[in-house]
Amino acid sequence: MLLSEQVRQLESEARLINNATEYAVTGTAWQTLCSYGNITLSEAQVVPFKYDLRCTNLPAWGAFSRLKIGDYYVHGAKRESDVAQTFHGLVWLAAGTYAVVMEGCAGNADAQCRVSNFQLGKTRFEDSVGEALVTYSAQISKTVSSRKLCVGSLKKAVFCVHAFAYTPSDVTNFENPGDNLANGVSISIDGVQVSWSERYQDAASKENAYAKCYYPVTVGSAHTITISKDNANTVVHISVACSPWLLSDGLYEAFTADFPQGSTFYVTLEPLSGNVTKNVQIGKIRAVSFGDSTDYYSNSSGTDILSHAYTFEIVEVGEVGIFLSGLGGCVSIIGVDIR
């Protein structure tokens, strides 16, 4: 018997903005690159986005972009090349109507900031909760409920924290454990400081720092997120999506495998905000590890849509883990052919 579940709910998914046009601004002051219009959500949803950024007439500090949805900034980036780089992220938004605006500036009066290929959409996943985009003011607490799946019970969900920070007329930096940076902003999960998964630090007083923290937590109990600021004047815009199906940059177990021996497990991983490399690894790190090739019985890695299957014939179900990763990607389908 084949049992499967589509955890990425495609019936609720839509691309809301698709604009390939390249927009440019010149000069060191923040300016509107493009007002992409309004989006409307009928329910709280994950909103992924991506765009290309490049700089022409290269200055010392390159080009800067920042994305604003409604009243809050959700992303910032820097590029010091005339070759475009794709940036991507996501935000959890409440139901409502939001204006979407891209702003830009450059490091000197002659340089140009150029943004193109902007896409933004809405999607929804099973077993997901979130904190809508706000200015951070107090500790955030979230719980993903436990649930029995066709492949076993939920084990971990990923806290997907996206933060934009600025200090008026000054630089801002996101801090990892051990850092001591100007106008630092750090993150703690359940009272313990952790590292940011990605961070784009401010430069030349551009008021444009951005970071992501993707951190797995157990389901069935509350977990807290605390943002700490070295400077009380620093402003942090933050949103949180928490889901077993939004992939982290590090390996994690979304569920504990629980199905009959001899069955075949299936999983499909897909791009979400970025067409990133995604990974499926079945096994366990040994007492003395010699790398993935000796720790895992089955490995699969790749961009685009990645489908993986493994039959538990000799390896016992429950004795090893099924690990996933790929920040910017997601799980779309899980399944098991029971024997």
Could you walk me through the main structural features you see in this protein, from its secondary elements to its overall organization?
- This protein has 339 residues and is an all-beta fold.
- The chain is globular, with a radius of gyration of 21 Å.
- The protein has 3 domains: 14-122, Jelly Rolls, CATH 2.60.120.260; 129-243, Jelly Rolls (Sandwich), CATH 2.60.120; 255-337, no CATH class.
- Strands 2, 3, 5, 8 and 10 form a 5-stranded antiparallel beta sheet that branches.
- The protein is built from 1 helix and 28 strands.
- The protein has one helix at residues 292-295, and strands at 2-6, 14-19, 23-26, 31-41, 45-56, 63-69, 72-79, 85-93, 96-106, 112-122, 129-135, 140-142, 152-154, 156-166, 173-174, 184-189, 192-194, 198-200, 209-218, 223-229, 235-243, 255-257, 264-271, 278-283, 296-302, 306-311, 321-325, 329-337.
- The longest helix is centred in the C-terminal third of the chain and has 4 residues, at 292-295.
- Helices cover 1% and strands 57% of the residues.
Descriptive tags:
single chain; 339 residues; mainly beta; Jelly Rolls; 3 domains; five-stranded antiparallel β-sheet; 1 helix; 28 strands; 1% helix; globular
Report the count of strand segments: 28
> What fold name stands as the CATH topology of the largest domain?
Jelly Rolls
Sheet with most strands:
5 strands, antiparallel
List segments where confidence is low: pLDDT < 50 over at least 5 consecutive residues: none
Q: Please identify the top-level CATH class of the largest domain.
A: Mainly Beta
